[in-house]
């Protein structure tokens, strides 16, 4: 048998017929499911029925325009019906055919393994807590005398998550006279509008003049934000004046610790 154009695929029958006799119903049940009345031609007693007089009640039942008698003959011609699923040849399915149509769960590998844990494609990975996500520091060589509360060093950091904690470490130096006191504190924000988050306590020297001292402070803060946050070291002379940075280099370090 010859064809014009591409021959029909195997598993597809172009025509099929059905004959119904001795029915006294107002409907006929089909041997093959159809999607619309356009898929069939119906004759009753060899008279073609107008589709406007027919109703596709279900995919396998057509309601007629009237009730049959046992002598009536109904013939149904199927214009086409699928009888098998076709498998495309290897290499014939293109990216455009697949775009947006395959769920991740249908893939042979629907997840990846990250740090020993499976993460579904399209999902999000949670990095384990306790890891340092970023580290910032600033170093200054200063030598200034303060007689009242003063900002000594500051540094800003932007946390990547509200659950992150910020670990602060400050190392500095000062020079004091006899019986002079000073306190060193951490502020979240500035001295004028921020919040004191660590009272570093007081340093006191008795009986010695112009003694030099290196000191350090550390604190773990929970800012609960993903906005840029400034941390400030504040020096506060309690009695007398303090020469800050007298011995040289001073460093403020900020580390984001993932929760």
Labels describing this entry:
49% strand; rod-shaped; four-stranded antiparallel beta sheet; Jelly Rolls; six-stranded antiparallel beta sheet; 259 residues; 2 domains
Number of helices: 1
CATH architecture of the largest domain: Sandwich
**Total count of domains:** 2
Q: What distance lies between the first and last C-alpha atoms, to the nearest angstrom?
A: 74 Å
Determine and state the CATH class of the largest domain. Answer: Mainly Beta
The residue fraction in helices comes out at under 10%
Give the uncertain stretches in residue-range form. Answer: none
The quaternary structure here is single chain
SSE-based structural type: mainly beta
Shape by Cα distribution: rod-shaped
Largest sheet: 6 strands, antiparallel
Mean pLDDT: 81
């Amino acid at each position: 048998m010859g064809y014009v154009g591409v021959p029909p695929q195997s598993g597809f029958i172009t025509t099929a017929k059905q004959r119904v006799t001795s029915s006294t119903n107002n409907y006929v049940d089909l041997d093959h499911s159809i999607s619309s009345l356009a898929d069939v031609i119906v004759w009753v007693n060899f008279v073609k029925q107008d589709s406007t007089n027919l109703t596709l009640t279900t995919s396998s039942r057509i309601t007629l325009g009237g009730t049959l008698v046992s002598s009536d003959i109904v013939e149904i011609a199927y214009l086409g019906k699928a009888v098998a699923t076709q498998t495309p040849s290897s290499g014939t399915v293109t990216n455009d055919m697949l775009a947006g149509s395959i769920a991740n769960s249908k893939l042979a590998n629907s997840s990846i393994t990250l740090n020993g844990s499976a993460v579904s494609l399209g999902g999000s990975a949670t990095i384990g807590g306790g890891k340092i996500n970023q580290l910032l520091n600033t170093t200054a060589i200063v030598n200034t005398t303060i007689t009242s509360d003063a900002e000594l060093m500051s540094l800003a950091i932007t946390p990547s998550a509200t659950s992150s904690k910020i670990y602060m470490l400050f190392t500095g130096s000062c020079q004091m006279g006899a019986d002079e006191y000073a306190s060193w504190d951490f502020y979240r924000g500035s001295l004028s509008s921020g919040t004191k988050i660590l009272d570093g306590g007081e340093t006191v020297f008795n009986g010695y003049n112009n003694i030099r001292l290196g000191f350090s402070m550390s604190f773990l803060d929970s800012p609960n934000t993903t906005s840029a946050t400034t941390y400030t070291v504040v020096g506060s002379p309690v009695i007398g004046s303090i020469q800050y940075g007298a011995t040289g280099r001073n460093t403020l370090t900020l580390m984001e610790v993932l929760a």
